[in-house]
Write a structure and sequence with these properties.
12 strands, alpha+beta, Aminopeptidase, 8-stranded mixed β-sheet
Length: 301
């Protein structure tokens, strides 16, 4: 049975985190104090015991010049003796439904190991963030520049990243958690993280894309194995999107499908919309979707 965590299951989630990830207690204290919320934690309960769970953390994300809400998946885990029973799949599908219910069009995550790239690909995630080559701004330098004024340090941090498209944005509370976590490990150097994205609401994201790039015109059929509402033909033209549910393009009356007509899956759609290496795509994708440099950083990793 899947449900949200509560005061009874909360300690079990924490013990599972320790069992599965083995993080230091001081890090866990920081994480669970700043980021954990029962209402954002899905648990799979079997015979009264939490055997699998995930957390849906809320962040802002600059997409096509507009800040949108996103869910960042964290702590996806199953107790060792309960693995290979499909519990994580059920939790992920439920998280997609919850994201749609909350009007969140995009989900992100950081795979902690390389094999997880293929694992999450099964559920419609695509790699859309690369490991950074350059060092990110030093959190230690920021707080030393603004002694005793965490708000001013947070504002300077925000000003640095706010100008970047396809970038996770952080609140003051997020910044406070980042500083506390970094202090535990003596403020190590940080670089952008490898990350994955999962489109939850293709229509909304395509609408924002169309509004940002009003001169673009094309039609694209999207296939999604798990989120049925994304299976549609979307026509982008004149800064707007028209969504239809034909079986194929021939079901749409003549003149109502913009050229070129494209077909893609939900994984590639994430790559296209976030501008992930789009210059390496074949024509006409490389001309329709501008290349960007998506950034994932300071995720309490």
């Amino acid at each position: 049975m899947i449900r949200f965590a509560d005061e009874i299951t909360r300690p079990q989630v924490r013990r599972m985190w320790k069992t599965v990830f083995g993080d230091p207690d001081d890090y866990m204290e920081t994480y669970f104090r700043h980021k954990y919320h029962d209402e954002n934690t899905l648990v799979y309960v079997e015979e009264g015991k939490v055997v699998a769970s995930l957390q849906m953390l809320s962040y802002g994300f600059t997409f096509c010049g507009t800040e949108i809400p996103i869910i960042y998946l964290s702590g996806v885990s199953t107790l060792p003796q309960y693995r290979r029973k499909g519990y994580v799949r059920q939790l992920l599908v439920r998280s997609f439904e919850e994201a749609a219910h909350r009007d969140v069009p995009l989900m992100l995550l950081v795979p902690q190991e390389e094999w997880l790239l293929k694992f999450y690909d099964r559920y419609g995630f695509a790699q859309t963030f690369d490991t950074g080559e350059e060092e990110l701004p030093s959190l230690k330098a920021l707080i030393e520049k603004h002694p005793g004024d965490l708000l001013a340090a947070s504002k300077e941090f925000d000003d640095f990243f706010r100008q970047n498209d396809m970038t996770i944005q952080k609140s003051f509370d997020d910044f406070h958690a980042m500083i506390e976590e970094a202090a535990l490990f003596n403020f190590p150097e940080k670089r952008s993280l490898i990350g994955m994205a999962r489109v939850i609401d293709a229509e909304r994201l395509l609408s924002l894309f169309a509004a940002r790039y009003g001169g673009k015109s094309f039609s694209i059929t999207v296939h999604d194995e798990l989120v049925e509402s994304n299976n549609a033909l979307f026509t982008v033209a004149d800064g707007k999107v028209d969504k239809r549910f034909p079986r194929n393009e021939s079901d749409v009356p003549d003149g109502q499908v913009a050229q070129p007509v494209l077909t893609t899956n939900i994984r590639e759609l994430a790559e296209l919309l976030l501008g992930y290496h789009t210059s390496e795509k074949k024509y006409p994708l490389n001309t329709l979707f501008p290349e960007k440099q998506p950034q994932m950083h300071f995720m309490l990793e």
